[in-house]
Amino acid sequence: MGKCFALMIFLLSFLLLLVLQNLEVVNAVGCTGSFYNDNSTYVQNRDDMFSTLADKVIDNDGFYNASLGNSPNRVYAIVLCQRGYDQQDCFNCVLSATKGIKKDCPNRMNSYTWDKDVEDNVSCLVRSSIHSTFGNLELEPAVLYPSPDGIDPSTNMTLFEQEWDGMVNLTVQATTDAKNSSVLKYHGAIEAEFTEFENVYMLMQCTPDITSQDCNRCLRECVTLFKNQVWGRRGGEVNRPSCFFRWDFYTFHGAFGNVTRLPAPPAQEGSSATDKKGRSPRSWVTIAIFVVLTFINVVVSIGLIMFFARRRKSNNGINVDSEEHYESDGQHMLRFNLGMILTATNNFSSENKLGQGGFGTVHKGILPNGQEIAVKRLSKGSGQGDTEFKNEVSLLTRLQHRNLVKLLGFCSEEEEEILVYELVHNSSLDHFIFDEERRSLLSWELRFRIIEGIARGLLYLHEDSQLKIIHRDLKASNILLDADMNPKVADFGTARLFEAEETRAETRRIAGTRGYMAPEYLNHGKISAKSDVYSFGVMLLEMISGERNNSFEGEGLAAFAWKRWVEGKPETVIDPLLMKDPMNEIMKLIQIGLLCVQENAAKRPTMRLVIVWFGSETIIIPLPKAPAMSGSQCQSEDRTMSMSNDSTELSCR
Start and end of every Gnk2-homologous domain (predicted)? Predict the structure, then answer.
């Protein structure tokens, strides 16, 4: 008996230890990763970076990410202030956060804290890491702060939980609604008047570098941790590296001066009474309503599916009345009706026109739910437009990456062929890098981030997606920039799908932009991932120089850069606006760009190797050889070329 009792005590102690480890209710700072010596280069780099963060975050509208030092001691940091912050409060909060990390994580590689200023007017995040976390959802470690006080035992917790869960859903929805174009876009604060309780306040915020889906997941996991571990406390807070969640019965963080105020569902008589199993009459009513509504929804859904199936058959698969889900090569996507598109774009009005391409126009639109979209309307009667349309629908439905433009759906009706994309607010890269005034907005740090993002998008296409795709028309006008200046590779009309084991192919239809096409592709129709690497190299040199490739008549930018490299004057390639930036890093990227445009495709690196070179200070990068010399340029950047057995015909468009 004694042994059994001792074993029981041991198991309970072990379980309690696991719970305490899970909660990580230790301090305001989450610390992970390897240990380093107090006098190491890494800690010096971290402290040097911390000394500038308070100023930098204010200069960058409340959100800033940066890195400092050389690998393996390079430090990456992200700093964020709560939306609506006062500059002095933000400054003080970041100073406090950096001090807290240095005190509580004096010798750990990775750390973060969601801190607040002395007056509790603003919250802020400071995060440091030995690897780049920008754009990645970071969930661990989680830090939980429950209120020391519990909710009154006489409270009807069934009703309270129902209303609390509803408030959570509303706050998550308000936080992840990406209509807000502000840098601090993921922020939601709600005050709700509960039926039988005092008002409840809830605040959520995510770092703006992650997607709205990742923000939703992060916040939901915060809520789940709180409910699973400390439900019944009078408020609390859960911190994760990518998001922050707090609720209480009083205002906090100055977040509730301009807040969404909502009433709770009306109380019903006897709502505080419970049956023998602890369920209130309201619970039984809710369950009954849920069951009835679920049954009705199932019946209606089956009826609608049968209705639209018959309608698709009678209309040759064209939906003329509403939007519907459609299967493209087994992939789930949305087919929009033409009426909705016309309404969204105000009948393709000139005021909503975003641009003109070789195969049609692009217009801005707003769907009935308020979502902004970019509508690509292909030219009627264009054989190439029809090919491009089918190609983009086929490919983009199966591609999902933060550095690829997202296809929301399509419309094929009344001779119209329309593609519906997410709206990318900052237009295309060429509107910045080749514009005398706007180019000054592209600091070297931002240019490098754009270059690296494009490289990661290409790596996904070449190696990491379920498909293997060669883009074939990579250039600055086909790179879109979102509200945070993150690059998204676009325009997959001429892309080529490879089989899993296929590494190269040949074609007689050459499609792309002269000056960006690899010589083996331009001259012999040979396609491989190295074709895209060549295009990337040209675009990389454009980003460094701020000049179009076709500005160098007769030779092209690659040949010009090579001559300056051989002469020992590569700095003459660099945009004068970058002369105060780190020359060694820029020179390294010129070298990588020249390696990407080697005439021999086998000598060009893969995109995976390019990304490794970007992040390493110790790897020896090979010296480049003479690039392929480009011929004369089309006056217009956009062109197509068709190749037959007898002749090659080039046409600019």
Answer: 24-133, 146-252
Q: Give the Cα separation of 238 and 25 in Å (integer).
A: 10
CA distance 634 to 638: 8
Give the CA diameter of the chain. 96
Name 117's Cβ contacts closer than 8 Å, sequence gap at least 6.
89, 90, 92, 93, 96, 124
418: Cα separation from own chain's centroid: 25
CA 395 – CA 390 distance, rounded (Å): 9
Q: Residues 571, 576, 580, 583: what is their CA dihedral angle, to the nearest 10 degrees?
A: -20
**What gap in Å lies between CA 20 and CA 454, rounded to an integer?**
43
Residues paired with 223 in a beta bridge:
none
- Closest by CA position to 101, among listed 118, 115, 82, 120: 115
Residue 351 CB-density burial (10 A; 0-12 exposed, 13-18 middle, 19+ buried): exposed
**251-290 confidence digits (pLDDT tens):** 876 655 555 566 654 443 433 334 434 444 434 444 555 5
Give pLDDT, residue 361: 86
Which residue's structure tokens are 């676009």?
490
Euclidean distance between the first and the last CA atom of the chain, given in angstroms as a whole number: 90
Q: What pairing do the DSSP bridges indicate for beta strands 416-422 and 468-470?
A: unpaired
Domains of the chain (ranges, CATH numbers): 21-134 (3.30.430.20), 157-273 (3.30.430.20), 324-422 (3.30.200.20), 430-652 (1.10.510.10)
- Judge contact between 197 and 219, C-beta under 8 A: no
Output helix, strand, coil percentages for the chain, rounded to the nearest 5: 40, 25, 40
Residue 537 tokens, joined: 């190299």
Q: Are the C-beta atoms of residues 131 and 138 closer than 8 Å to each other? A: no
* SS3 at position 595: helix
Q: 141 is written with which tokens?
A: 């470690």
327 touches 410 (CB < 8 A): no
Burial degree of 609 (CB within 10 A; 0-12, 13-18, 19+): middle
Distance CA 564, CA 624 (A): 13
Is 102 annotated in a binding site? The answer is: no
Read off the pLDDT of residues 424-442 as tens digits, 9 standing for 90 and up.
Answer: 888 899 999 999 888 888 9
- Whether the pTM exceeds 0.70: the reply is no
In angstroms, the CA 535 to CA 529 distance is: 10
C-beta atoms surrounding 541 within 10 Å: 26
How many other CB atoms are found less than 10 A from the CB of residue 97? 27
User: Strand 331-335 to strand 407-413: parallel, antiparallel, or no bridges (unpaired)?
Assistant: parallel
Tokens of 555: 């030779």
- pLDDT tens readout for residues 400-418: 888 998 888 888 887 788 8
DSSP 8-state code for residue 280: -
Specify whether 86 is catalytic. Answer: no
174: number of Cβ within 10 Å: 18
- Give me the catalytic one of 89, 115, 473, 491: 473
